[in-house]
Sequence to fold (345 residues):
Amino acid sequence: MRRIWTVELRPQAGRPTLVCPSCTAHTSPLAASSARSAALAHLACHARADALPVYLRSCQCRAQGCAWHPRHRGCHGPVRLALTRDRGGRTWRLADACTACAGATSHTAVVPDTLLGSALPQSSAGPPKPARAGFRPGPDEQVRVREMLTYLSAALPRFTSPAARLLSLQCALRTDTRGHVRLQAGLLRGMRLRGHRDLWQELAHAGWLEPPDARSAPVQLRLLDAGVLDQAPGRRARRRAAHWALYPAPLALPAAPPALRLTALALAAHASPGIGHSTDLDTLARLCGHSPQQTGELLDRLVTTGTLTTWHHNRETDEAAWQLPRPPRTNRPATRLQRHQTEWF
Ligand SMILES: [Zn+2]
Ligand SMILES: [Zn+2]
Ligand SMILES: [Zn+2]
Fold:
């Protein structure tokens, strides 16, 4: 069963046109600003329409002789939908791919099922994780933030700044179904991003949103990314996730520079219970819009500031293993927040 869909964005008389071979040469002119999100939304429609139980889905990369990526050790991991854009952002491909192939393909991100809306059967989320001793799935907020960071790593241009990424995460999690977002001045102040008009310009230039009126308070804007409008979890659950992303304990660094904050957030979104953790270095780099080398430098800085006790790059598996300091033991009864922390980290 072939599960590969592509669309092309063709510049035509100054106005990009969406061309989809699956829709019998379906073309439609687009507003220039929304071309990228229209491509994602159209591909998601196909995936929704052709939903298939997980046991019938196979790695489409392998079916193509694994020509989409450099050689690796072979397919493994659950099959998910992987979104790939070509270098210029003109062609977009959505396909079933195993974790190994998706991870080895450049300009590729795994699309969370929550972003395809509720029409996708639950079974397509892949087999449940093997039960390890003491393993408990992370809180919903952590999963939601991880999925949204993953999505944004594909939807935003590669060189989007860390501050703009932090801002886009808040917008994507707080949007209503029409793309309208209201951000209170206090929230932006807390993020140390209030009055940074350049960030709105950056995201507007990427075609991701309509910039807000600089004088309005609260800040009101509209997202142009159709991919975030039809999210399965309700708005209240997403708002909780947005709040968690502001203070992702115990990796909350509200006063640190945005690049460091985003790295800490990406780590928090991948943390498992306990002290020792590991994450694919390439994944971390992609979520933060950095090179793996820059990510390594930022991890070094997190060790210097005492946020991590240590980290290590395993060149064999390309994993970054990192450790959090042990939570301080006190005789005072734990606050709700502390209980929450020790429960999950
Ligand atoms: Zn189509
Ligand atoms: Zn492959
Ligand atoms: Zn594969």
The first strand starts at residue 4 and ends at 12.
